[in-house]
Every structure is written in structure tokens, then in C-alpha cells.
Amino acid sequence: MPEYGILRTKYETVLEMNKYDILGKYYGYRSFREGQEMLIDHILDGKDVLGIMPTGAGKSVCYQVPALLLPGITLVISPLISLMKDQVQALNQAGVHAAYINSSLTEGQITKALTFAEQGRYKIIYVAPERLETERFLRFAGAVEISMVAVDEAHCISQWGQDFRPSYLHIVQFVRRLPRRPILSAFTATATGEVREDIVSVLGLDNPKTLVTGFDRQNLFFAVEHTKNRTRYLQHYVADRGKESGIIYCATRKNVEKVYEQLRNEGIAVTRYHAGLSPEERRNNQDDFIYDRKPVIVATNAFGMGIDKSNVRYVLHYNMPQSMENYYQEAGRAGRDGEQSDCILLYSAQDIMINRFLLENKENSADFTPDEQLTIRERDEKRLQSMIYYCNTKECLRTCILRYFGEKNGSACGKCGNCLKHYVEKDMTAEAGQVVRCLEEQGERYGIQVVIGTLLGGKSAKLREYRVQQYPSYGTLGKWREQELKDLIGQMIQEGYLRQTQDKYGLLQTTGKAQDIVDGLCKVMVKMEPRSSRIAEEDDRIKGSTNRRSDILNTRGLAFFEELRELRREIAREKAIPPYLVFSDKTLVDMCVRLPMNREEMMEVNGMGAFKYEKYGARFLSCILEYTGGIREKFYFGE
């Protein structure tokens, strides 16, 4: 396999380097992660590739390393300005000259950037898909050697995906207009088998090497909490995490404002992000979050794509997302540095109604026919049902996620929120029969809440208005709790005895199988928490992962870790860059463990590349020597 030298400007020496040299010098790593090297080798052999890799698995390395080794320029197609800016800033901090071309630049700045690229100053150019059809960019593309076109967030090209962007179709026409077909590489974190096939077909990938490294991210703790007071949960959770950085997602702007105000009133350094704010305020708030001036942000799903902040320690969902793709992409913004992080979803049945309303009012492209729009709506509903299942299942949450994306996982993970709960299995066949009889008595005209209210013998104004006390089933399951009946009905839906109508009303109905329950031909077994384990005071239920990498540090080590973080913040302010672009938390912890006393030892620290050392290493080395007095003491637990 050939190795190419990095193309430099005429003022620099041409250096002969291989992929390992690049990885060490610019990224500070000694070895590639799973799958990275295979994709890089195929690209360097001139072959197309498709990489399906979870957030934080190092997708960008798969196209950036070969981009520096191939003879020409690599174009990276990226959907959002913030994503391009973040990636280019990170590359420049690592010592790689890169640029981006999008609507945030003036025409003069674009011309200057393209001129520099023509002169060989940039090996990597990030570009918005809309820019590909402009006359100026087409002239540039025809005049230079484009070795590779890398498509980031490639799922955006599939009209059946959850985030279709018509502008991505410009990529296909652009490649066809080039004098010579470049290597095509495509990458995404979330894609079902159907979407993967669409990416290959629409992009026209030529017999690509496809890699699915797996969707599992072991450092993420997943949990679903059915809490009655979500706001109180958030307040206590965020307060307990101190200065840690986190994202709180809400389904609506109204909820963003409500949660933001409540956290701010608690004295938490928090900001907000949604489409109702001015572009300037969104930009300023996003910068406050990225630069750790306000480490907590409350946002709609308009926020996050392209945010490469590595030290996000938790992602909380105040509302249930519309699909597993959206949830995993948003939750995946936690723990990009590999540190233990929390992904907790606060579920309420009302979220189903909110999401159905949002889906019914969703704007579809005018390019879709009525039949296609109907198909999209049906697929949206199917995705929503999968999300509802996730929020109500008692099985391992990690297994549930992996199965959705087509990855078989034989055993429970033992460390998600469900696996850590103690469930008992109860025979609720008789109670299931009462549910069926209640539905028949009511003519299957109501949703879950009314059915449960009837069975519990509820006395709310709504139930009185519906005169549910007239039904023989009224109050027949009064000894049970509301959540227990929700668990029962959820189990009956999963096993096909009941179904919900796919509209905003979500009416509960029986299926043909329901008669088997009434006739005693089957059993309905339901997993639920024993009542003795139910804690009335929900403050005690605020859980999360407990094993941070920094937990290996003893008291002295933690104090030194804070010293290093303060130095990182100081450097970040001087350079006007986010702190995580200086060094990640993972790198700082490794410094605390290794306590390097010279350059050679510092170069062994995880994430310490040669360029990073020249820029920042001496200051951190000085800090270590000053703090320790040159004596290597033990700052961590264990051998």
C-alpha cells in the first residue's frame, strides 16, 4: 500500500510521513481505534468507504489522516456552520491547516480561502452542500486536484432517514461534474440498514468497504425515569453535578424557557438555545456553553449537531424525542472524550401527545408526492412507537438501543438504569382480562389515561364528564397503582393484545389476540418494581453513572486535577478557544496519574501530540513540577 508525503506550501519542507506518524504528531495517539485503520487503508488504496461509527468513535480521523497523505485536496461536506467551525478550529489547534467555506464568510473571505487552497496551503476544506453548485466553487474544483470527497453526517442524504436534507443531493451532481472522480467516503453515527443502503445508492459509492463498528458506547449510562416532578429532578441532578457540563433537551421552546428560568433561579450557571432567539443570542449562548462560561445549556433539538465539546458529562431529556435516531444522536453528545457520562430520559405519557402534534405539523419537502408524504408519516409513527417502547420497557436499555440499529446483543449490560433496578415478575392475567373488559364496555373510545382512571376508580372532572362510573369495570383494579397499570397495558401492547391508534388521540383498542386472555388460553406476566423499593421521596431516585475516570484520583490528585483545569481555562482565554481544544479531561487525568517530569515523559500522555506539546506542553510541565516539587507522589488509588 503506498504512503504519500504531506503536501506543504512552498515555504515548508516536504516531510515523508506515514499514517502512524500523522496519528502521533497531530492527534497524540499511539494506535488507531477499532475500524479506523481499515477504513484509512482502503481510502489510501483509492477505494470508496462507508463508516457507521458511534459519536466519539473517531470518524473524523478516518478521513483526516488519509487527507493529509493523499496528493491533492480533500473536501469534507458538512451540514452545519457550527460543525465546520469546530472541526477546523480543532485541526488548526493540532497543527493542521484547514479552512471552511459557507455562508458565514464574506465573498472576499471565500475567495481568499480558495486562493490559499489553490496554492497548496490547505489540505482539508470543509464546505456546505449548498456551496457546491456556485460558479466560483465549481471553477475552483475544476482547477485543483481533489483526491477525496468525504461526506459527514451522510444519513442526511437519505429521504427515508430522520434528518433528510435536500441540499445533500447536490453532492451527486457535483462529483459528476469534476474532471476526475475522486475517492468518496461517507460517515454517520446513526443509520439503520435501510438508510445505509440509501447512502450507498444515492451517493453512488463504488463497491464501498462498509464498516459498522457497533453502536455501543460503554462509557454512557442510560436510564429512563418515570418521575412525577421532572423539574425538581432536574434541579437536584444539576446541582449535584457542580461545575460539570451538561445539555438538557426539551421538545418545545416553552419548556426550554421554563426549565432555563427555574435553573437560573437556583443559581446555576445555565444558558438556553432555541429557534425563537435571535441569531446573535443563539451564537452568544452557544459560545458561553462551549467556552464553559455557562456549563449547562437547555435547548430544543435545534442545538447540538456540530458541537464537538468533549467534556459534556450528561445529557438529560426533559421530554421524549420523536425517534431512537434522534435520541441516540443527542444522547451521544455526552462523553465524547470516553469518560463516564449520563444519558437520562425523563418520561411522561404526555410526551406522546406532544410528539404526535409536532409530527402532524411537520413541514415536508414540496418535492415529495402525496404517497411519499404518507409513507414518511407512517415511518415517523413507527419510529415514535419504538421510542415509546424504549421508555416503557423493563429490559436492558442498551440491548434495546443496539437491537433497534440492527446489532444483536446476547446479554443484558448489567449497568443501565433498568439493569440496576430490582424487578419482580407478577402474573397479571386476571388484571389483563379486566383491561380488555373495560375497553369493550367503553367501546374502545378512550386513551390510556381514561382507561386507567376508570379501572382505578378515579374521580377527576374529566372522568366524571365521561361518566366512567357507570361501567361495571369502574374501580375493579383500585388496589393497584397507576404506574403498575401502565406497566400492564404497556406489556399487553408489546405482546400484541392491545394497540393504540396512530393519531393524536392514541385510542386504546383490542386486537384479535385479546380474546385469548378472556378465554384463559394465555398468561400475561409483567415485570415491575416491588412496592417496598418504591421511594416516596423522589430526590433519592436521582441516579447516574458513578465511575468517572477522575474517580481513580485520590484527594490530592483531585486537587491537582483542578489546578490543571484552571491552567487550561487560562490558556483557553488567552487563545480565545474552547478549553477542550487545549486538552481533554482524559488528557488531564492522565497527567495526574503519570506526573511527567520532562518532555519525553509528557509525550507519553494520552492525547499529547508533538504540535500540542510545542504550544502548551511546557506550561503544563511547569505546573506539574511546581505542584509536586519534582517528587513523583501517588495521586491515584490502586497499584
What would you say this structure looks like, in words?
With about 650 residues, the protein is α/β, with parallel strands linked by helices. It folds into four domains: about 190 residues, Rossmann fold (3-Layer(aba) Sandwich); about 180 residues, Rossmann fold (3-Layer(aba) Sandwich), CATH 3.40.50.300; about 100 residues, Winged helix-like DNA-binding domain superfamily/Winged helix DNA-binding domain (Arc Repressor Mutant, subunit A), CATH 1.10.10; about 80 residues, Orthogonal Bundle (DNA polymerase, domain 1), CATH 1.10.150.80. About 40% of the residues lie in helices and about 10% in strands. It contains 24 helices and 17 strands. The strands form four sheets. Strands 3-4-2-5-6-1-7 form a seven-stranded parallel β-sheet, sandwiched between helices. Strand 10, helix 11 and strand 11 form a beta-alpha-beta unit. Helix 2 runs parallel beside helix 3, helix 16 crosses helix 17 and helix 21 crosses helix 24. It is globular, with a radius of gyration of 27 Å. The N terminus is likely disordered.
In short:
With 639 residues, the chain is an alpha/beta fold. Helix 16 (429-442) crosses helix 17 and helix 17 (448-456) crosses helix 19.
